[in-house]
Amino acid sequence: MSVTDAKTLPKDFDAKNAQRALALARETIQIEADALLALKSRLSDEPDDNFAKAMMLLLHCSGRVVVSGIGKSGHIARKIAATLASTGTPALFVHAAEALHGDLGMITENDAVIAISYSGEAAEFVSIIPIIKRMGAKLIAITGNDASRLAQLADIHLNVHVDKEACPLNLAPTASTTATLALGDALAVALLDARGFREEDFARSHPGGALGRRLLTHVRDVMRSGAAIPSVKPDVMLPTALLEITRKGMAMTAVVDDEGRAVGIFTDGDLRRLIEKAQDFGKLKMADVMHANPRTVSPDQLAVEAVELMEHFRINQLLVADGDGKLVGALHIHDLTHAKVI
């Protein structure tokens, strides 16, 4: 046990205390789960439901969605703004306290403001909301109190009331922040669906992530091209082709005709199978041993499609051909791994 642990834990911390901790953990999760189910039950199927109104207001907002909060609600607001922005709804976070000292200038009349305060009485909001309303921006309030000043001033109010917090003292925001975060996610998902937001759109806002690499990387971005492509003609003798395979390091060679069209492929696997037949290699031409009509992929296809093709046919190499069938590149499974497409 570290010095820090010794200072933090009571001296009599034992199995009994551990059991109590586990019981509190389960109770916390149950309280928050109950809060989410209660929130779900408050959403009706009617088109005039406040959630539906809020979603439509945000969908038709010609500016940005400004999400604001303070304290724990501020942390939740920041996450909701990030989720909206990454799923097709232009959004930003403005700290309610900083808005009082200049950041209010970040809000325009074309924006929609989502103000988050569980009590609905945060002094910072009481000060800035009248100004936001006067400038013409629409206001959606997320509070736990229908009768609060923030709820009364809002164009649309979304109620995230919880019967109790998971905190044993019923003080620290726990169930209420969970409910607020879930409601923000629900708005983001509803907007995502209404906008027809797709995986490709998500990838564009996450170019550095794994999904971005998978959906934004094309075959031409990772294929070997030019002199790096192993290729021989059909009348080339097998020993010469083996030298080409060795030089280019792709464990295969493409076979091309006089017009540069890919007419065949010969791999290390083909060579091993050929050895089992114990033929005289010196007399064999590539036309005799190649796989004719090889599988190819277009340079404009997504790299992930090449991966799917390789996995489906259990192959490690793939030729890249243009619309006329001419060889323009070659892919090895290692190229896709190196590019982190796999």
Task: List its salient traits.
alpha/beta, single chain, 5-stranded parallel sheet, 342 residues, 4-stranded mixed sheet
Question: How would you characterize the overall build of this protein?
Answer:
- This protein is α/β, with parallel strands linked by helices and 342 residues long.
- 46% of the residues lie in helices and 15% in strands.
- It is built from 16 helices and twelve strands.
- The chain has helices at residues 3-8, 15-42, 50-59, 72-86, 96-99, 123-135, 149-153, 175-194, 199-204, 210-216, 219-222, 238-248, 268-276, 286-289, 303-313, 333-338, and strands at residues 65-69, 91-95, 112-116, 138-143, 156-159, 231-232, 252-256, 262-267, 291-292, 296-297, 317-321, 327-332.
- It has a five-stranded parallel beta sheet with strand order 2-1-3-4-5, with helices on both faces. A four-stranded mixed beta sheet has the order 6-7-8-9. A three-stranded mixed beta sheet has the order 10-11-12.
- A hairpin with a 5-residue loop joins β7 (252-256) and β8 (262-267).
- α3 crosses α8.
- It is elongated, with a radius of gyration of 31 Å.
- The mean pLDDT is 89.
| Extended strand count | 12
What's the end-to-end separation, in Å? 41 Å
Point out poorly predicted stretches. none
Provide the structure class: alpha/beta
What's the Cα radius of gyration?
31 Å
Query: Which strand order do you get reading across the main beta sheet?
Result: 2-1-3-4-5
**Mean pLDDT metric:** 89
Largest sheet: 5 strands, parallel
